[in-house]
Design a protein that fits this description.
The protein is of the alpha/beta class. It has helices spanning about 40-45, 65-70, 70-75, 90-120, 130-135, 225-240, 255-265, 280-290, 300-305, 325-330, 350-355, 375-380, 410-425, 450-460, and strands spanning about 5-10, 20-25, 25-30, 60, 85, 140, 150, 155-160, 170-175, 180-185, 210-215, 245-250, 275-280, 315-320, 335-340, 365, 385-390, 390-395, 400, 440-445, 465, 475. The chain binds zinc ion (2 copies).
């Protein structure tokens, strides 16, 4: 049986992860992420398929980030009918994330079409609506970590904890017929050791091939432990001078991590006891899922919860769904912490909080995530003297603090360590002569080229062969 991989997306870039594995006549899809970029590229790339969604036999989804699951509703519209295997936490999270993605697209199309109508240009359509997205998870099937399932003829899948976000998985495919057996690992995205709330990534055993992310293939993160001390210093300073702390945050994982650290600091009385608001209906619903899927959290968090110290049920903490309550914060002059979406300050309720607080030098904007070029978030990070919000210029007088130690992705050292551990994780069921098959090749994806190249060079120093595929390149595994 021949086995091939086609790198459909997330090759030489970080967004739109999707890969097609063909074993004989069986077609398996790993992820179907949305390519995120400017409007024209977004529409063009996400609607162009170099394969037929109708003939896919099974799909495995690694995690609920939109760059991994965001194109599923669109694929279903184009005939995808197979089962999608993933963990139960990913299934529930993907449900929320996809509906939100549908809603954002509908709003964007409404805005663009207003302009296009005026200019007599053709009208656009959303890739999918919130309603279409809400039906997508009906074809999802939950599987537990570490259990091998037959997902199609001659193909078995196991999902191991990737330690990246709640429910995230490293996928291991075992492809086996009378002629050959092959084990392929898919670690996209790969988490880090010691992240709050999550278990450390699990090492897959006896891989022949590995598809691995390389987002930070050329960089080293500050240790995650530093995030808590930086959070303490910064928030204390602003709160003690009577200011508000505005934290623009990604709704999935980063918001919950920040809450976790704030809970620890409050418990130890290391920051002033002020109200903490999570102003985002999506972040609120996602946090509910963290409370529901306790099995996916690490031992420490589960023990804390059993002892009555649930970080998401802190007395000072209030989750805001209603717009009325969100607006009421504008006139509340007490020192407080407000965590609000969106992460890059491009839309959402964080804009109102910035608009109302950015001109007061007692306040602070605390940046805990990546801000892409040209976003309002980046302009704030760069400390532009004036920033434009809802078409009005505001003076940026609030203190801006950036904490770089938060990241859910393994850095260069952690990726190299993961590979080393994979190399020594032999299978029990192989004879001594077969052991030299271990990790014949690593395919580096989910990274800008310079990041992948840097990691590839480091791997070569260790005598490990890697390859950086192009988008839509197809390779035969022999
Ligand atoms: Zn991710
Ligand atoms: Zn990703």
């Amino acid at each position: 049986m021949s086995v091939k991989i086609k790198f459909l997306g997330g090759a030489k870039t970080v967004t739109g992860s999707s890969h097609l594995v063909t074993a004989g006549r069986t077609e398996i899809l790993l992820d179907a992420g949305l390519f995120q970029g400017h409007r024209d590229a977004f529409y063009e790339i996400n609607t162009t398929f170099h394969y037929n969604p109708r003939t896919i036999n099974a799909m495995v989804l690694s995690h609920a980030h939109i760059d991994h699951c965001g194109n599923i509703p669109n694929l279903i519209k184009r005939g995808l009918r197979c089962k999608i295997y993933t963990t139960s936490a990913t299934k529930d999270l993907a449900d929320l994330m996809l509906v939100d993605s549908g809603k954002i697209q509908e709003e964007d199309v409404k805005y663009v079409n207003k302009i296009n109508r005026r200019l007599n240009l053709p009208l656009r359509k959303a890739l999918y609506t919130a309603k279409e997205a809400s039906r997508a998870t009906k074809i999802f099937r939950s599987i537990s970590y570490n259990q091998k399932f037959c997902i199609a003829k001659d193909v078995y899948a196991t999902i191991l904890d990737a330690g990246h976000i709640l429910g995230s998985g490293i996928v291991v495919l075992d492809i086996k017929d009378a002629e050959r057996s092959l084990r392929l690992g898919y670690a996209v995205d790969l988490g880090r050791k010691n992240l709050p709330l999550l278990n450390d990534p699990v090492i897959p055993k006896g891989l022949d091939y590995l598809i691995m992310e390389s987002t930070y293939g050329g960089r080293l993160h500050r240790p995650i432990e530093e995030a808590q001390s930086r959070l303490r210093e910064a928030t204390s300073r602003a709160l003690k001078r009577g200011g508000k702390v505005i934290i623009p945050s990604f709704t999935l994982e980063r918001t919950q991590e920040v809450i976790y650290f704030l809970n620890e600091l409050l418990k130890e009385k290391l920051i002033p006891s002020v109200p903490i608001y999570v102003d985002s209906p999506l972040a609120t619903n996602i946090t509910d899922l963290f409370n529901f899927h306790l099995d996916f959290l690490d031992e420490k968090t589960r023990q804390d919860i059993n002892r009555g110290n649930n970080p998401f049920e802190l007395l000072n903490l209030r989750f805001i769904r209603e717009q009325r309550e969100s607006k009421a914060l504008n006139t509340d002059r007490r020192p407080m912490i407000i965590i609000a979406g969106s992460g890059m300050c491009e839309s959402g309720r964080v804009l109102h909080h910035l608009q109302n607080n950015i001109e007061d030098s007692r306040n602070m904007v605390l940046v805990v995530g990546y801000m892409a070029k040209d976003t309002l978030g980046r302009k704030i990070v760069e400390k532009n003297p004036f920033v434009r919000i809802f078409g009005v210029e505001y003076e940026l007088n609030a203190e801006v603090v950036v904490i770089n130690s938060f990241s859910g992705h393994a850095d260069q050292a952690e990726l190299l360590d993961f590979v080393s551990q994979c190399l020594s994780a032999k299978r029990q069921d192989l004879s001594a002569g077969q052991e030299d098959r271990l990790l014949k090749r690593i395919f580096l994806v989910h990274g800008e080229v310079e990041q992948s190249l840097s990691l590839s060079a480091k791997l070569a120093e260790k005598g490990v062969q890697s390859y950086i595929p192009d988008k839509d390149e197809e390779l035969l595994l022999n």
